[in-house]
Amino acid sequence: MKAIGLYRYLPIQDPESLIDIEVDTPTPGGRDLLVRVKAISVNPVDTKVRAPKAQEEKTPKILGWDVAGVVEQVGPDCHLFKAGDEVYYAGSMTRPGADSQFHLVDEYIVGHKPKSLNFAEAAALPLTALTAWEALFDRLEINHNPANNSNKSILIIGAAGGVGSIATQLASMAGLNVIGTASRTETIDWAKDHGARHTINHHKPFAEQLKALNLETVDYIFCLNATDKHWDQMVEIIAPQGKICSIVETHQPINLSALQQKSATFVWEFMFTRSMFQTSDMIEQHKILDALAELINQQKIKTTLTETLTPITAANLRTAHAKLESGSTIGKVVLENFD
Protein backbone atom coordinates (compact mmCIF):
# COMPACT_ATOMS: atom_id res chain seq x y z
CA MET A 1 0.00 0.00 0.00
CA LYS A 2 1.00 3.61 -0.47
CA ALA A 3 2.20 5.54 2.57
CA ILE A 4 4.19 8.63 3.51
CA GLY A 5 7.03 8.34 5.99
CA LEU A 6 10.55 9.29 6.93
CA TYR A 7 13.91 7.72 7.66
CA ARG A 8 15.66 10.91 8.78
CA TYR A 9 14.38 13.85 10.83
CA LEU A 10 14.95 16.87 8.62
CA PRO A 11 13.69 20.45 8.10
CA ILE A 12 10.40 20.39 6.22
CA GLN A 13 11.98 22.26 3.28
CA ASP A 14 14.13 19.15 2.62
CA PRO A 15 12.36 16.85 0.12
CA GLU A 16 13.61 13.85 2.15
CA SER A 17 11.80 15.04 5.30
CA LEU A 18 8.65 13.19 4.17
CA ILE A 19 8.74 10.75 1.29
CA ASP A 20 6.34 8.52 -0.66
CA ILE A 21 6.87 4.86 0.24
CA GLU A 22 5.29 1.42 -0.24
CA VAL A 23 4.66 -0.82 2.79
CA ASP A 24 2.72 -4.04 3.39
CA THR A 25 -0.99 -3.75 4.11
CA PRO A 26 -1.54 -4.84 7.74
CA THR A 27 -4.04 -7.45 8.94
CA PRO A 28 -6.40 -6.68 11.84
CA GLY A 29 -6.35 -8.82 14.98
CA GLY A 30 -8.00 -8.50 18.38
CA ARG A 31 -10.02 -5.26 18.63
CA ASP A 32 -8.33 -3.71 15.59
CA LEU A 33 -10.10 -2.20 12.64
CA LEU A 34 -8.42 -2.02 9.25
CA VAL A 35 -9.49 1.36 7.89
CA ARG A 36 -9.25 2.52 4.28
CA VAL A 37 -8.01 6.09 4.78
CA LYS A 38 -9.98 8.73 2.88
CA ALA A 39 -8.65 11.92 4.49
CA ILE A 40 -6.03 12.94 7.06
CA SER A 41 -5.26 16.12 8.95
CA VAL A 42 -2.06 17.65 10.32
CA ASN A 43 -1.52 18.67 13.95
CA PRO A 44 1.36 20.15 15.96
CA VAL A 45 2.18 16.64 17.19
CA ASP A 46 3.13 15.70 13.60
CA THR A 47 5.61 18.53 13.28
CA LYS A 48 7.03 17.92 16.77
CA VAL A 49 7.63 14.22 16.08
CA ARG A 50 9.13 15.05 12.67
CA ALA A 51 11.32 17.90 13.99
CA PRO A 52 15.04 17.70 13.05
CA LYS A 53 17.23 15.45 15.22
CA ALA A 54 20.18 13.10 14.73
CA GLN A 55 18.13 9.90 15.07
CA GLU A 56 17.64 7.73 11.97
CA GLU A 57 15.06 5.00 11.35
CA LYS A 58 15.84 1.57 9.85
CA THR A 59 12.21 1.09 8.88
CA PRO A 60 10.06 4.04 7.76
CA LYS A 61 8.40 6.11 10.48
CA ILE A 62 4.80 6.88 9.51
CA LEU A 63 3.11 9.88 11.11
CA GLY A 64 -0.52 11.02 11.12
CA TRP A 65 -3.07 11.21 13.93
CA ASP A 66 -6.30 12.45 12.36
CA VAL A 67 -8.27 10.14 10.10
CA ALA A 68 -11.59 9.77 8.36
CA GLY A 69 -12.20 6.62 6.38
CA VAL A 70 -14.13 3.38 5.87
CA VAL A 71 -13.73 0.12 7.80
CA GLU A 72 -12.29 -2.48 5.42
CA GLN A 73 -11.95 -5.41 7.85
CA VAL A 74 -12.48 -6.03 11.57
CA GLY A 75 -10.51 -8.10 14.05
CA PRO A 76 -12.07 -11.14 15.75
CA ASP A 77 -12.78 -9.28 19.01
CA CYS A 78 -14.50 -6.24 17.49
CA HIS A 79 -18.10 -5.50 18.45
CA LEU A 80 -18.52 -1.74 17.88
CA PHE A 81 -18.01 -1.62 14.09
CA LYS A 82 -18.40 -3.68 10.94
CA ALA A 83 -16.94 -3.54 7.44
CA GLY A 84 -18.34 -0.60 5.49
CA ASP A 85 -18.80 1.70 8.49
CA GLU A 86 -17.58 5.26 8.01
CA VAL A 87 -15.34 6.29 10.91
CA TYR A 88 -13.14 9.06 12.29
CA TYR A 89 -10.48 8.96 14.99
CA ALA A 90 -7.10 10.24 16.20
CA GLY A 91 -5.24 6.97 16.74
CA SER A 92 -2.35 6.19 19.07
CA MET A 93 1.21 7.48 19.47
CA THR A 94 2.46 3.96 20.21
CA ARG A 95 1.51 2.55 16.78
CA PRO A 96 2.24 3.51 13.15
CA GLY A 97 0.43 6.67 12.10
CA ALA A 98 -2.29 7.00 9.52
CA ASP A 99 -0.49 8.65 6.60
CA SER A 100 -1.15 5.49 4.58
CA GLN A 101 -3.84 3.95 2.39
CA PHE A 102 -4.84 1.50 5.14
CA HIS A 103 -4.45 1.86 8.90
CA LEU A 104 -4.89 -0.35 11.97
CA VAL A 105 -6.61 1.17 15.01
CA ASP A 106 -8.17 -0.14 18.22
CA GLU A 107 -11.95 0.25 17.91
CA TYR A 108 -12.13 1.63 21.48
CA ILE A 109 -10.72 4.96 20.26
CA VAL A 110 -12.79 5.19 17.06
CA GLY A 111 -16.08 7.01 16.46
CA HIS A 112 -18.74 6.81 13.78
CA LYS A 113 -18.12 9.63 11.29
CA PRO A 114 -20.67 12.44 11.48
CA LYS A 115 -23.20 11.74 8.72
CA SER A 116 -23.53 15.43 7.93
CA LEU A 117 -19.83 15.81 7.06
CA ASN A 118 -17.73 14.61 4.16
CA PHE A 119 -14.44 12.80 4.84
CA ALA A 120 -12.29 15.94 4.64
CA GLU A 121 -14.53 17.85 7.04
CA ALA A 122 -14.53 14.92 9.47
CA ALA A 123 -10.76 14.39 9.33
CA ALA A 124 -10.23 17.93 10.64
CA LEU A 125 -11.85 17.06 13.96
CA PRO A 126 -10.83 13.98 15.99
CA LEU A 127 -7.58 14.97 17.72
CA THR A 128 -8.57 18.56 18.43
CA ALA A 129 -12.13 17.68 19.43
CA LEU A 130 -11.00 14.91 21.79
CA THR A 131 -8.41 17.24 23.31
CA ALA A 132 -10.92 20.02 23.84
CA TRP A 133 -13.61 17.71 25.24
CA GLU A 134 -11.24 15.92 27.63
CA ALA A 135 -9.71 19.20 28.80
CA LEU A 136 -13.03 20.90 29.50
CA PHE A 137 -15.11 18.06 30.87
CA ASP A 138 -12.59 15.52 32.23
CA ARG A 139 -9.64 17.66 33.41
CA LEU A 140 -11.33 20.98 34.31
CA GLU A 141 -14.48 19.07 35.33
CA ILE A 142 -16.83 21.63 33.78
CA ASN A 143 -20.47 20.62 34.05
CA HIS A 144 -22.21 19.97 30.72
CA ASN A 145 -25.42 21.65 31.92
CA PRO A 146 -25.50 25.37 30.95
CA ALA A 147 -27.70 26.13 33.95
CA ASN A 148 -24.74 25.34 36.22
CA ASN A 149 -22.34 27.69 34.41
CA SER A 150 -24.37 30.88 33.90
CA ASN A 151 -22.03 32.98 36.06
CA LYS A 152 -18.77 31.24 35.17
CA SER A 153 -16.08 32.26 32.71
CA ILE A 154 -13.23 30.63 30.83
CA LEU A 155 -10.18 32.11 29.11
CA ILE A 156 -8.96 30.07 26.13
CA ILE A 157 -5.40 31.06 25.19
CA GLY A 158 -5.02 30.43 21.45
CA ALA A 159 -8.70 30.42 20.54
CA ALA A 160 -8.35 30.36 16.74
CA GLY A 161 -6.19 27.24 16.43
CA GLY A 162 -7.43 23.70 15.90
CA VAL A 163 -8.12 22.86 19.56
CA GLY A 164 -9.26 26.40 20.41
CA SER A 165 -11.79 26.35 17.58
CA ILE A 166 -13.52 23.35 19.15
CA ALA A 167 -13.03 24.42 22.78
CA THR A 168 -14.75 27.76 22.19
CA GLN A 169 -17.76 25.95 20.72
CA LEU A 170 -18.00 23.37 23.51
CA ALA A 171 -17.48 25.92 26.31
CA SER A 172 -20.09 28.23 24.84
CA MET A 173 -22.52 25.34 24.49
CA ALA A 174 -21.92 24.55 28.19
CA GLY A 175 -23.07 28.07 29.07
CA LEU A 176 -19.72 29.62 29.98
CA ASN A 177 -18.73 33.20 29.27
CA VAL A 178 -15.96 32.42 26.77
CA ILE A 179 -13.04 34.81 26.35
CA GLY A 180 -10.55 33.80 23.67
CA THR A 181 -7.14 35.23 22.93
CA ALA A 182 -6.47 36.36 19.36
CA SER A 183 -4.34 39.14 17.93
CA ARG A 184 -5.23 39.49 14.24
CA THR A 185 -8.48 40.63 12.67
CA GLU A 186 -9.02 37.26 10.99
CA THR A 187 -8.32 35.26 14.17
CA ILE A 188 -10.54 37.55 16.26
CA ASP A 189 -13.39 37.08 13.77
CA TRP A 190 -12.80 33.30 13.67
CA ALA A 191 -12.81 32.98 17.48
CA LYS A 192 -16.04 34.96 17.81
CA ASP A 193 -17.65 32.97 15.02
CA HIS A 194 -16.81 29.77 16.93
CA GLY A 195 -18.26 30.69 20.31
CA ALA A 196 -16.03 33.29 21.97
CA ARG A 197 -18.14 36.09 23.48
CA HIS A 198 -15.07 38.32 23.83
CA THR A 199 -11.44 38.29 22.70
CA ILE A 200 -8.29 39.75 24.22
CA ASN A 201 -4.80 40.08 22.77
CA HIS A 202 -2.31 37.51 24.09
CA HIS A 203 0.56 39.92 23.36
CA LYS A 204 -0.77 42.38 25.95
CA PRO A 205 -1.36 42.06 29.74
CA PHE A 206 -4.39 39.89 30.44
CA ALA A 207 -5.56 41.51 33.69
CA GLU A 208 -6.20 45.00 32.36
CA GLN A 209 -7.97 43.64 29.28
CA LEU A 210 -10.23 41.51 31.48
CA LYS A 211 -11.01 44.53 33.65
CA ALA A 212 -12.25 46.29 30.53
CA LEU A 213 -14.73 43.40 30.27
CA ASN A 214 -15.71 43.87 33.94
CA LEU A 215 -13.86 40.72 34.98
CA GLU A 216 -11.27 40.60 37.75
CA THR A 217 -10.69 36.85 37.41
CA VAL A 218 -11.84 33.85 35.39
CA ASP A 219 -13.01 30.50 36.76
CA TYR A 220 -11.18 28.40 34.19
CA ILE A 221 -8.18 28.80 31.89
CA PHE A 222 -7.42 26.50 28.96
CA CYS A 223 -3.88 27.19 27.73
CA LEU A 224 -3.06 26.19 24.15
CA ASN A 225 0.06 28.31 23.70
CA ALA A 226 3.33 28.88 25.60
CA THR A 227 2.48 27.66 29.10
CA ASP A 228 5.63 29.05 30.71
CA LYS A 229 5.35 32.40 28.90
CA HIS A 230 1.79 32.96 30.15
CA TRP A 231 2.20 31.32 33.58
CA ASP A 232 2.49 34.43 35.75
CA GLN A 233 -0.49 36.04 34.04
CA MET A 234 -2.57 32.89 34.46
CA VAL A 235 -1.74 32.82 38.17
CA GLU A 236 -2.77 36.46 38.45
CA ILE A 237 -6.17 36.12 36.81
CA ILE A 238 -7.35 32.66 37.88
CA ALA A 239 -10.13 32.82 40.46
CA PRO A 240 -9.67 31.41 43.95
CA GLN A 241 -10.39 27.67 43.67
CA GLY A 242 -10.24 28.03 39.90
CA LYS A 243 -8.69 25.54 37.49
CA ILE A 244 -6.03 25.81 34.79
CA CYS A 245 -5.45 23.18 32.09
CA SER A 246 -2.66 23.22 29.51
CA ILE A 247 -1.68 21.04 26.57
CA VAL A 248 1.66 22.77 25.92
CA GLU A 249 4.87 21.45 27.47
CA THR A 250 7.04 23.89 29.41
CA HIS A 251 10.60 24.80 28.43
CA GLN A 252 11.55 26.06 31.88
CA PRO A 253 10.30 25.36 35.43
CA ILE A 254 7.05 26.99 36.52
CA ASN A 255 6.20 27.99 40.09
CA LEU A 256 3.28 25.78 41.12
CA SER A 257 3.47 27.25 44.63
CA ALA A 258 2.10 30.48 43.17
CA LEU A 259 -1.30 28.77 43.06
CA GLN A 260 -1.24 27.69 46.70
CA GLN A 261 -2.99 30.63 48.35
CA LYS A 262 -5.78 30.47 45.78
CA SER A 263 -6.16 26.70 46.23
CA ALA A 264 -6.17 26.65 42.44
CA THR A 265 -5.74 23.53 40.34
CA PHE A 266 -3.29 22.95 37.49
CA VAL A 267 -3.78 19.90 35.28
CA TRP A 268 -2.39 18.59 32.01
CA GLU A 269 -4.37 17.29 29.06
CA PHE A 270 -2.67 14.83 26.69
CA MET A 271 -5.12 13.28 24.27
CA PHE A 272 -3.00 10.13 23.79
CA THR A 273 -2.91 9.19 27.49
CA ARG A 274 -5.77 6.70 27.30
CA SER A 275 -4.40 4.83 24.27
CA MET A 276 -0.74 5.08 25.33
CA PHE A 277 -1.37 3.52 28.75
CA GLN A 278 -4.32 1.32 27.71
CA THR A 279 -6.35 2.81 30.56
CA SER A 280 -9.44 1.01 31.84
CA ASP A 281 -11.60 3.83 30.48
CA MET A 282 -10.04 3.87 27.00
CA ILE A 283 -13.45 3.29 25.41
CA GLU A 284 -14.43 6.79 26.59
CA GLN A 285 -12.80 8.17 23.44
CA HIS A 286 -15.18 6.09 21.33
CA LYS A 287 -18.09 7.50 23.35
CA ILE A 288 -16.79 11.10 23.10
CA LEU A 289 -16.36 10.88 19.32
CA ASP A 290 -19.88 9.46 18.92
CA ALA A 291 -21.28 12.21 21.17
CA LEU A 292 -19.44 14.84 19.12
CA ALA A 293 -20.76 13.30 15.90
CA GLU A 294 -24.31 13.69 17.22
CA LEU A 295 -23.68 17.35 18.13
CA ILE A 296 -22.22 17.93 14.66
CA ASN A 297 -25.19 16.25 12.98
CA GLN A 298 -27.46 18.54 15.03
CA GLN A 299 -25.38 21.52 13.77
CA LYS A 300 -24.40 22.46 17.34
CA ILE A 301 -20.69 21.99 16.55
CA LYS A 302 -19.11 22.75 13.19
CA THR A 303 -15.99 21.48 11.48
CA THR A 304 -12.84 23.59 11.68
CA LEU A 305 -11.57 22.69 8.21
CA THR A 306 -10.09 25.71 6.45
CA GLU A 307 -8.01 24.19 3.64
CA THR A 308 -7.96 20.91 1.70
CA LEU A 309 -5.00 19.62 -0.29
CA THR A 310 -5.39 16.74 -2.74
CA PRO A 311 -4.16 14.12 -3.38
CA ILE A 312 -2.41 12.65 -0.32
CA THR A 313 1.26 12.74 -1.35
CA ALA A 314 4.54 13.49 0.37
CA ALA A 315 4.80 16.81 -1.45
CA ASN A 316 1.37 17.94 -0.28
CA LEU A 317 2.02 16.67 3.25
CA ARG A 318 5.27 18.68 3.36
CA THR A 319 3.24 21.73 2.31
CA ALA A 320 0.76 21.11 5.14
CA HIS A 321 3.58 20.71 7.70
CA ALA A 322 5.17 23.95 6.51
CA LYS A 323 1.86 25.80 6.86
CA LEU A 324 1.48 24.53 10.42
CA GLU A 325 5.06 25.40 11.33
CA SER A 326 4.48 28.97 10.16
CA GLY A 327 2.39 29.50 13.31
CA SER A 328 -0.25 31.49 11.44
CA THR A 329 -2.76 28.81 10.46
CA ILE A 330 -6.42 29.18 11.42
CA GLY A 331 -8.45 26.02 11.89
CA LYS A 332 -7.23 22.83 10.22
CA VAL A 333 -5.44 21.77 7.02
CA VAL A 334 -6.63 18.43 5.57
CA LEU A 335 -5.31 16.14 2.83
CA GLU A 336 -7.77 14.00 0.89
CA ASN A 337 -7.55 10.96 -1.41
CA PHE A 338 -4.56 8.87 -2.36
CA ASP A 339 -3.84 8.72 -6.11
TrEMBL record:
Keyword Ligase attributed: no
NCBIfam families: adh_fam_1
Main location: cytoplasm
Domain Enoyl reductase (ER): 13-335
GO CC annotation terms, alphabetical: cytoplasm
Record text on subunit structure and interactions: Homotetramer.
UniProt source species: Dictyobacter alpinus
Keyword set, alphabetical order: Cytoplasm, Metal-binding, NADP, Oxidoreductase, RNA-binding, Zinc
Subcellular location, record wording: Cytoplasm
Gene Ontology terms for molecular function: oxidoreductase activity; RNA binding; zinc ion binding
Family statement drawn from the similarity comment of this UniProt entry: Belongs to the zinc-containing alcohol dehydrogenase family. Quinone oxidoreductase subfamily.
UniProt-recorded name of the protein: Zinc-type alcohol dehydrogenase-like protein
